[in-house]
Amino acid sequence: MNIEKYTATLQAILYQTRKGFCNIPRYVLTYKTSAIKWSKREILGHLIDSARYNLMRFTEIHCHDDIYEIKGYHQDHLVNINQYQTLEDHHLLTLWQLLNDQIIMVISAFTSDDLAKSIKVKGEIKTVAWLIEDYINHLQHHLNQIFTDDLIMEKTPVKVSLAEAIDALLKSATVPNSHFVEVLQYADLEVEFYKPDGNDLQKPHLKDEVYVIISGHGNFYVNGHILPFRAYDILFVKAGDEHRFIDFTDDFSTWVIFYGVRNGIIR
Questions:
Q1: Is the pTM of this model over 0.85?
Q2: For 4-18, 83-97, 171-185, 206-220, which range has the lowest pLDDT when averaged over its residues?
Q3: Is domain 3-147 in CATH 1.10.287.130, yes or no?
Q4: Among residues 205, 227, 209, which one has the least CA distance to residue 159?
């Protein structure tokens, strides 16, 4: 590819990503398959780090006479320290787009001689053109991870906010076998107020349950996954799933809604 194709490709990616990312529900963006795996929101955060480091590389290469050596960075640490999981989507998208806008500006100033410059990557000699193409390929790889819908779209979300639950209910009202509609159709619902004293020692239940967080914040463990929660979040737990609240504040309290088989609580 030449410089015009590089910049055109990046501009198209920016447009499509900003348009598509805004249509993904928040609970899908923040869902983590495990505590050490990135959510879709954190993947975008990683792409922010990638853009930041590559902007520095492209800028330094432009004025570097010797062979420029590409150095790595601590990806997981940067995702954690920047707290991408908790940032607003608009914040993430704007930061990511501005960094890539600047990358486009820098690349557009390259000459054919700049593209042919040698760089060193893990001991191997490559060209600047290779680095640009590698950046675009890396970008597309992770965006494919964000925009795949097979992660949890066909599963009941573990955690959603109250607003998202209401929105999902409204959207699913005309969908046959909707999970939200099925919940409302249960004849046997039990509601309890729950405020653990220091530690949450509950065991798995034989009933499906929904937690509606009243106050406080902390983390929720369910089947090996750890999710942050705060007031007004809604947590879904399937019957038999091991779960508990951890690292919660003193003011934490929640409603618990049990539904399904009768007399199903294992103490």
A1: no
A2: 171-185
A3: no
A4: 227
